[in-house]
Amino acid sequence: QVQLVEPGGGLVQAGGPLRLSCAASGRTFSTYTMGWFRQVPGKEREFVATISRSGGRTYYADSVKARFTISRDNAKNTVYLQMNSLKSEDTAVYYCAAVTGFGEFLSLGARNMDYWGKGTLVTVSS
User: Fold this and answer.
1) pLDDT tens across 7-41, in order?
2) Tens-digit pLDDT profile for residues 99-124
3) What secondary structure, in 3-state letters, does 11-45 show?
4) How many CB atoms lie within 10 A of CB 78?
5) Cβ contacts of residue 88 below 8 Å, gap of 6+?
């Protein structure tokens, strides 16, 4: 089992950057495909980005492609989400998630993920 903690949310102006981090403990971090998802009240949790176990492959939702970058540091048991050119519609609770068993397949939905952090609120002011 793995525990996930995501500090680092907050309030940011539209157009600005923000970096989220997610620290993992428990089983070997490098065995997990990691992902970021987000949710606003009244809507389903939506996919943002995933990264392969080695960090060599990434996959993004069209809405964040070219603005967001997911990365990981397996030595630090941490996954990151660098968010640039933030828009008001990026306002959401962001969740870190982990799963094993999908190999290099990265087109994953929320229902595929096994472990979740508690989430961190990102508010983008316009």
Assistant:
1) 878 999 999 999 999 999 976 899 999 999 999 99
2) 998 988 899 999 999 999 999 999 99
3) EEECCCCEEEEEEEEECCHHHCEEEEEEECCCCCC
4) 17
5) 14, 124, 125, 126
